[in-house]
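G., the chain you wanted modeled:
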Amino acid sequence: MSAITITPSPNRVTVRLGGTIIAETDAALSLVEGRSPPVLYIPRSDARWEHFTKTATRTSCPFKGEASYYAVSVNGRTKPDVVWSYEDPIPAVAAIKDHLAFYPSRVDGIEEVARG
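Predicted structure as tokens:
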């Protein structure tokens, strides 16, 4: 099994697309899997859902479970599969349930600022 650690992020995380904030939180989780760079998981409650549409895309990870994907629409522009979520993750990573992760290359920015 790949070693996975999940820890609370000490930072405020803001995700933007097309100049619009699509998610912002002080409660992100940082997931590190093996030697991969950390992935920030943002609580679903901190996303601006008017911009999200679930797509038919699904993937499966033996260490996390099945992921669902979402397109994001801002200012008349839609980008497919920008976001993924493990809606029913395996027990070892249950902390990421009800969280979203964003592909950094598919948004304009994921900003992390230390909380003061």
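The chain has one domain: 4-114.

Shout if anything looks off.
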